[in-house]
Amino acid sequence: MIVEAGAGKVIAAGYGLVSGIALLAGMTGGRHAAVSADPAQLAELVCSYAGRSPAAGENTKRPESRVKTDVSRSGPELGLSAAQLDDLRSGIETAASLGIPKDTVIADLAVSLKSESSAEGHASPRATALPDDRFRKRAEEIVNAIASRLCTELTAEVGQAGELSTEALEALASGSSRGEIALRAALKMLGVPYSWGGGGAAGPSYGIQHGAGTKGFDCSGLTQYAWARAGVALPRVTYAQWNHGSRVSDRIQPGDLVFYDTNPQIPGPDHVGLAASDTQMVNAPHTGAVVRIEPIRRHGFMGAVRPGWKKGRIAFR
């Protein structure tokens, strides 16, 4: 689940099907650990759930909308609502990134399915019809289908990073830093609509929930896109990007990621922008707005992170 501000800081929402997975995530290191894997590693972990290799027969063209495609195809086929499907995607991705065994996820989901089927007012006709010995098979069917789709999508996203355009190569040859290349990419997106859950390494896309009808970027989708154009693979969500680079202790430079905590009741970063200078940033602020230039110093500012392109043990900027 692509999450931003407010209650969205929590890894799993409250639809019931993945409450156990969310609890396991908390017991094994919390939300920062859950998304600390780099994109290539996360793709490998999720693909292992699906019994596939990330490189085996994949079409690396990223779907225009990862979540929208899944909701329209996988949800009805699995007998799930859009909310349940989105929640399960989040739970499976989280569990895989934490190294939680697939069998544990299936067992947890089977218990949740049984509980949901017997809850008054929340019974699923398909789930209710299943005898006890088939809840696990039903759970396995769901996990396999979602993991397989996630494997395809994450592999496609990894394929978008590290592919430098001719313009970017020329910029590097002329002495520009990767941060400056990322900034140029972000500046080209000025005026693109904000879309909650939208955008990523491949560019603007339709979001989820209240962003489902808008093609654009949310905050972390924009920063992931900008740095992908500079050949650096960032994680997709804000709180993962906070842990993907070095903290800036000196002057903020173009391309640095600047982070905010807009809800002190749930500590941690929930918004990110991309520095245009030490005082201004390129920002995808909120629903109803567009990508624009705004001041860095504002309420909730936490600090800045400088991503780096790593080759072996050497980081280049």
Automatic annotation (TrEMBL):
Residues 59-71 have a biased composition (Basic and acidic residues). SUPFAM superfamilies: Cysteine proteinases (SSF54001). Residues 53-75 are annotated as: Disordered. This is NlpC/P60 domain-containing protein. Pfam families: NLPC_P60. One of its GO terms (biological process) is proteolysis. One of its GO terms (molecular function) is cysteine-type peptidase activity. The keyword Metal-binding does not apply. Belongs to the peptidase C40 family. Residues 176-317 form the NlpC/P60 domain. It comes from Planobispora takensis. InterPro entries: NLP_P60_dom (IPR000064), Papain-like_cys_pep_sf (IPR038765), PG_Endopeptidase_C40 (IPR051794). PANTHER family: NLP_P60 DOMAIN-CONTAINING PROTEIN-RELATED (PTHR47359:SF3), PEPTIDOGLYCAN DL-ENDOPEPTIDASE CWLO (PTHR47359). Keywords: Hydrolase, Protease, Thiol protease. Gene3D superfamilies: endopeptidase domain like (from Nostoc punctiforme).
